[in-house]
Each structure stands twice: as structure tokens, then as C-alpha cells.
Write a structure and sequence with these properties.
The protein is an alpha/beta fold. It has two domains: 5-147 and 292-311, Rossmann fold; 149-289, Rossmann fold (3-Layer(aba) Sandwich). Helices cover 30% and strands 25% of the residues. The chain has helices at residues 14-24, 64-80, 109-120, 134-138, 149-156, 174-184, 227-238, 257-263, 292-303; strands at 5-9, 31-35, 41-45, 53-57, 85-90, 124-128, 143-146, 164-168, 188-194, 203-208, 215-223, 244-251, 268-272, 286-289. Helix 1 (14-24) packs across helix 9.
Length: 312
């Protein structure tokens, strides 16, 4: 039976999809996406995908709702074009932060996204560094979660880490920071951060660990406005830290985040291309690392029925 591997890209991050195709030595699948005069999105697959193994690359970037709708329509079009299996490749999962009922009468949007993907016709999900582990359990179809930890650590090893300590920006990120510390064979310090409202403002009250005179490495799964990260850097400098290096998997960088990073004390800020960076913003201190090879290897493993966990 025919079982061709094909990569289809939505409009959210075509550069990453192109890198994945280049790594896999595949031509991108042909697709046409139009917007009608009534603002409706129309998707047409421009090649035969009957009985093919199709991977749809679509990240959660602005405009998020348009890209989510587009993803669902692409999956629906593939389903009715008789694709054998459809995998939604979500480098950055839509509505990833809406993962719990922490206020009265609110939607748990991350769970709804999982339901929508299944209803549209997706057979499995491939994503990276979810904000919360329970999001995997929201889905009734298989979910493979990848990590950029080794990619970012390999980059940091090119720096002088002889006097470095990994600092978790809050207690909730301690497990992730510990993973970086273990891979880099560095000690770990933890900042006690208290958030008093549903925003990016938080107060850092204590630091557990020895940081004075050391070089601090700050890691987080994602950075939105950068407010919390910049406050952490300011406090670390006040507490006697010498140099600051930072990194995150998902650089959302909304608002003036990139300007804040450019003006901050950080020496370099490593992130990945799960989300495309805006071209009209300063990024002198930002180093973008490509996750194309990580996703490419996972796509090959899924296509051939091999383990994805061995890649983590």
C-alpha cells in the first residue's frame, strides 16, 4: 500500500516548515490558502494525498485565532482528500497557558484545542515544550512532546560556564531549570516569585542558593512580555551576579519584550524558531536556534513507527 510522507505548511511559520522539508529532503506539499470577501478562509490541497502520511506544520503565532482556524481547515481538507494519517505539528501549542480552571466560569482553552484537533480529523499531535504537562492528557489522540533543552544547552556550552549557576525564575519552573542544570552539570538556585494577579507582574522575595559573584543562567519555557524575566535579571544583578545568560524555548516576545531584552543586562538570550520573530524589532542580543532537525527526526520516527521518546 502507498504510504508517502508529506509535509504541509500553514501560513504561521513557513520558514520552519521549509527547514524541516530541507532536512528530510522533501518538497513541501502544495497547498492554496485564500481569504474570501466575507473574511472566510478557504483551503485547497493542490496535490494527491490519498493514503499518504501527512504532517501539518502550524505554530501558534499572531494572529493566533486565524492560524488555529486555518490549521483546522487544512486538517479537514486532508481528511476529505483521504489522507491515511494526519499529524498536527504544533511547535508552539495554541492557547497553551489556558490549561486550568483557576477562576470562576472560564474556559479551559487548551483542552478545547485538543478536542477541535480531533474533531477536525487529526490522528496525532506533535508539539514542543508544553507549558503544563497535563495538556497531554487533554487529548484523546496520541501526543508526542519534544524538548529544546539539549539544543539550548549545546549553545550555552559555547560560552564560559566555569563560574555559572542555573537560576530558576520561580518555584514552578524548578523542574525545568533542574533539567538544564543536570545537562550542563551546574548548580541550581531558585527564585521565590509570588504572582498576585493574572498578569506578568510578580514579586521576587527570596533566592535559594549561592549566586553572588557567579554567572547566572536563566531559563524558562516561554517568554511573553519579558517583564518577569527582566525583573529577575535586575534582582540578580542587585544580588551580586556577574554575568547573565538566558534562554527559552518559545520566544513569544509580545509588546516591547524584544526592546526590553535589548536594553537589559543579559549578555545573550537564546530562543528557538518555534515562533517566527518580527522583522521590525531589535534582536541584537537574541540568538535564534533552529528546531527543524528535532522535528524532522521526530517526523521520520513517527512515519517509520519508531520511538519518539528516544529523541528526547
Amino acid at each position: 500500500m502507498k504510504n508517502y510522507l508529506k509535509i504541509i505548511s500553514g501560513s504561521s511559520n513557513p520558514a520552519l516548515a521549509g527547514e524541516i522539508c530541507e532536512y528530510l529532503d522533501l518538497a513541501p506539499g502544495r497547498i492554496q490558502i485564500d481569504r474570501g470577501p466575507n473574511d472566510n478562509i478557504k483551503v485547497q490541497i493542490k496535490e494527491n494525498v490519498r493514503e499518504d502520511d501527512v504532517f501539518v506544520v502550524q505554530t501558534s503565532s499572531s494572529p493566533v485565532n486565524d492560524h488555529l482556524t486555518e490549521l483546522l481547515l487544512i486538517i479537514d481538507a486532508l481528511k476529505y482528500a483521504s489522507a491515511r494519517r494526519i499529524t498536527a505539528v504544533l511547535p508552539y501549542y495554541p492557547y497553551v497557558r489556558s490549561d486550568k480552571k483557576d477562576e470562576p466560569r472560564i474556559s479551559i482553552s487548551a483542552r478545547l484545542v485538543a478536542d477541535l484537533l480531533q474533531a477536525a480529523g487529526a490522528d496525532r499531535i506533535l508539539t514542543m515544550t508544553l507549558h503544563s504537562p497535563q495538556i497531554v492528557a487533554f487529548s484523546r489522540i496520541p501526543v508526542d512532546q519534544l524538548w529544546a533543552t539539549s539544543l539550548i544547552c549545546n549553545y550555552m556550552r559555547s560560552k564560559d560556564l566555569s563560574n555559572a549557576v542555573v537560576v530558576s525564575p520561580d518555584v514552578g519552573s524548578a523542574d525545568e531549570a533542574s533539567a538544564y542544570a543536570n545537562r550542563l552539570d551546574l548548580p541550581l538556585a531558585i527564585m521565590d516569585k509570588r504572582r498576585h494577579a493574572d498578569d506578568e507582574k510578580a514579586e521576587i522575595q527570596n533566592i535559594i542558593g549561592d549566586i553572588e559573584g557567579r554567572d547566572a543562567l536563566l531559563f524558562d519555557d516561554e517568554v511573553l512580555t519579558g517583564g518577569s524575566m527582566m525583573e529577575a535579571m535586575r534582582i540578580l544583578k542587585d544580588r551580586g551576579v556577574r554575568r547573565i545568560l538566558a534562554g527559552c524555548t518559545h520566544g513569544v516576545f509580545s509588546g516591547a519584550a524584544m526592546e526590553r531584552i535589548d536594553q537589559s543586562a543579559v549578555e545573550v538570550f537564546a530562543t528557538t524558531n518555534t515562533i517566527p520573530l518580527p522583522n521590525d524589532k531589535p534582536n541584537g542580543k537574541i540568538e535564534v536556534l533552529s528546531v527543524a532537525r528535532i522535528f524532522g527526526d521526530a517526523i521520520k520516527a513517527i512515519h517509520h513507527g519508531e520511538s519518539v521518546s528516544r529523541l528526547i
